[in-house]
Design brief:
The protein is α+β, with helices and mostly antiparallel strands. Helix content is about 35%, strand content about 30%. The protein has 13 helices and 23 strands. The strands form six sheets. A seven-stranded mixed beta sheet has the order 3-7-8-14-11-10-9, with helices on both faces. Strand 5 and strand 6 form a beta hairpin. Helix 2 packs across helix 5 and helix 8 crosses helix 11. It is globular, with a radius of gyration of 25 Å. It starts with 13 loop residues before the first helix and ends with a strand. The protein binds zinc ion. The site of zinc ion has 7 residues, from loops.
Length: about 475
């Protein structure tokens, strides 16, 4: 079969391999404005499947979707800036509209935090209005100085959840519940093993009391933050004056949360599951779960149509590749690049033997399968693949998670990739020292139970175990 290298080998130049996969699998391409991106149909179909699955999980917790405006008055962000540190220069600002200079500049939403909180202030009056649970699917803009396709673009697609609660404890419970929704989605649907934990104060979202993260380990040993969930305490309630009348008749501030995931997760899927032949998609997010290819027109093509109909009747997303003007090898390579989990290939010879060839993408393994059982075999293979990709990701993470026994050892090894577990005293100075000369950072606080009695950096009594890695 045609298996000439069409991609830069993953082990040779990982960033170039990533770019190659994005281009050759026809996921996305750069847009005309720097930092913008065109999402091609194959990439968008994957995103739609991710979105539908995540949306179902979010709604199952009682959250409702709504939509808020793209343009936000500058004064809203200034109001936030008075209460929240870390007001950022990533904003895109509209100063003219309809040929006239605007009286007040409008910000293209970098997040809808402010406008949603302003709505909450109007919608929430009494304790019966709580909890208020809202999610939005939208595009947001954050001006990127160093854009990278899919991973860091100036405009990107995401979901942002915002909730308001009567008490701080309820907000904390919501924060943890959504972190778990994200973790389950990433492991079960994306097949990506993630570590969850709290962010250190320095990595915390501006305005949050507590920030929690899902961190994945990419194929090159770097971490990718795949989703975050924040307990905002009373910070935004004070900034936007969101209060409610309690059952006891007192006026109280609500406690709020926010949580988000973005199209960056697709970057994670590529970098966790991809190989030298291209993308490998977990069946749950594969636009075509099974592609059927007949070697020739006529009887094989007719049989392929019949098998595809049987697969669809069983709820499988099956696609027939009828591009007979292309060589069979070229067609197979195309679907390998695009990461289609299972292929059923049918030629005259197989047909004569009453068989089809069943190909699984993850291991690039082929086997003959009798025609009367190939539909069931393909369906079973999809379940098997979903499991196998997750197990592989889990194994990779386990094999690349190390205990660092000294700062020297960490500095010597962290550049080669992987997660490093170590004990930390909690000081800012030690956190900074961990990153000096290595570009590594604390990705998550794993537990209050330190792996060693003393801090790896300064030998002070340790307060917690943290995960350190270089990150995207
Ligand atoms: Zn320390």
């Amino acid at each position: 079969m045609a298996s000439q290298a069409v991609l830069t080998p993953r082990g040779k130049d990982f960033p170039q391999w990533f770019q190659d996969v994005v281009a050759r699998a026809e996921l996305a391409e750069n847009g005309p404005a720097r930092g913008s991106m065109v999402i091609r149909p194959w990439g968008y179909a994957i995103w739609e499947l991710m979105q539908a699955d995540m949306d179902r999980r979010i709604k199952a917790t009682g959250v409702q979707n709504a939509y808020f405006p793209l343009f936000i008055p500058m004064s809203y962000l200034e109001k936030e800036a008075q209460h929240v540190e870390g007001f950022s220069p990533e904003l895109a600002v509209v100063t003219h509209g309809g040929g006239q200079e605007l009286a007040e500049p409008l910000v293209v939403r970098p997040t809808s935090e402010t406008v949603i909180n302003a709505s909450f202030a109007r919608w929430i009056q009494g304790y019966r209005d709580l909890p208020m649970l809202i999610n939005q699917w939208a595009n947001v803009v954050r001006w990127e100085m160093r854009p990278r396709i899919i991973l860091r673009t100036s405009e990107f697609l995401w979901q942002e959840g915002h909730t308001a609660h009567a008490t701080y404890e309820e907000a904390q419970a919501e924060t943890m519940q959504m972190l778990e929704v994200y973790r389950a989605f990433m492991e079960e649907t994306l097949g990506v093993a993630v570590v969850t934990g709290e962010k250190s104060p320095r990595e915390r979202f501006a305005g949050a009391d507590r920030t929690y993260t899902c961190e994945g380990l990419m194929g090159d040993g770097k971490a990718l933050q795949l989703g975050t969930s924040h307990n905002l305490g009373h910070n935004f309630a004070r900034a936007f004056d969101i209060t409610y009348l309690s059952a006891q008749g007192t006026r109280e501030y609500v406690a709020t949360t926010s949580w988000g995931t973005s199209m960056r997760m697709l970057g994670g899927v590529i970098m966790v599951h991809g190989d030298d032949q291209g993308l490998r998609l977990p069946p749950a997010i594969a636009p075509h779960q099974v592609v059927l290819l007949a070697l020739a027109e006529g009887e094989p093509a007719r049989l392929v149509d019949k098998l595809a109909a049987e697969l669809r009747a069983e709820g499988v997303r099956a696609h027939v590749d009828n591009r007979f003007h292309l060589s069979f090898g070229r067609r197979s390579v195309d679907w390998e690049l695009k990461g289609v989990p299972v292929r059923i290939e049918l030629g005259e010879r197989e047909l004569a033997a009453g068989q089809a060839t069943l190909v699984r993408r993850d291991r690039r393994a082929k086997r003959p399968e009798p025609l009367d059982s190939v539909v069931r075999a393909a369906r079973d293979l999809l379940d098997e693949l979903q499991r196998a990709l997750h197990e592989e990701s889990l194994r990779f993470r386990t094999e690349h998670t190390y205990d660092a026994s000294s700062l020297e050892e960490l500095r010597a090894r962290v550049g080669d990739g992987g997660f490093f577990r170590l004990a930390w005293c909690g000081s800012d100075a030690c956190e900074e020292a961990l990153g000096e000369g290595t570009g590594a950072s604390i990705r998550a606080i794993l537990s209050e139970d330190p792996v060693a009695p003393t801090c790896l950096v300064d030998g002070a009594p340790a307060r917690c175990s943290v995960l350190v890695a270089r990150a995207y």
